[in-house]
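Exercise: predict the structure of this protein bound to nicotinamide-adenine-dinucleotide.
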Amino acid sequence: MRLQNKFAIVTGAAGGIGRAIADALAREGAHVLLADIRSEPYAPLAERQQYRNVDITSAVAWQELVESIAPGRIDILVNNAGITCHQAIDEVVLEDWDRVVAVNQTGPMLGMRAVVPVMRRQGGGSIINVTSSWSIVAAPGVAAYHATKGALRMMTRNAAVTYAKDRIRVNAIVPGIVRTPLTDAQPEVTASIVAMTPFGLAEPEEIGAGAVFLASDEARAVTGSDLVMDGGYTVA
Ligand SMILES: NC(=O)c1ccc[n+]([C@@H]2O[C@H](COP(=O)([O-])OP(=O)(O)OC[C@H]3O[C@@H](n4cnc5c(N)ncnc54)[C@H](O)[C@@H]3O)[C@@H](O)[C@H]2O)c1
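Solution:
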């Protein structure tokens, strides 16, 4: 029970990596609010979990979410929700680009903006932003995804140095290729990345373990870091 009595918010937690993180945090004793744009989670909730239908691109939704939290405490925020778009720069459809920026970049900013005052008031907290190995190395096309995950990597570092004085730690989890609804929906892309990954396809639970570490007091010396969980993809 490394997170007993902690309160956590995990975005994009209907399924996939977000749900695995929400499950891992709850197993360690945290109370977890699972926020997602889907009206229902893919699987029934576990102990100490509650589900909320939230669009993370809405500043109003974030404000309402934070104000509605019963304990008035937020110890952990995991900005996990993310979307992708397979367009190279010369193929960009502006509406699609704007949507990826809104979800992958503006959403995490709004989340951090909403929880920082609460964490500051209570004397600290842990924020985890889920980026991607494509925030470190490039692949052809997928321009908006690369741009936003790269931005989120630097937003993480910026927030880490800005809020260190408030004892708020801000880190990134950097997944490689993980079995989720997102990767299931694009089997050819997934197979090609798996082929370049020494440890092959990861399971979402493996990413959950990294989130538990960064959320826990064991990581009290860790801020502004990238926890690269990519099965060796970026170093192969
Ligand atoms: N699966 C992978 O291989 C992989 C690799 C690297 C990074 N990532 C990152 O991990 C995170 C989770 O990915 P996943 O594979 O579990 O994806 P997923 O598509 O299975 O889950 C993403 C969730 O985010 C939710 N979401 C989308 N827009 C939202 C919004 N506006 N407000 C609230 N929720 C919203 C979706 O409904 C969905 O449940 C993403 O940020 C993704 O970029 C995934």
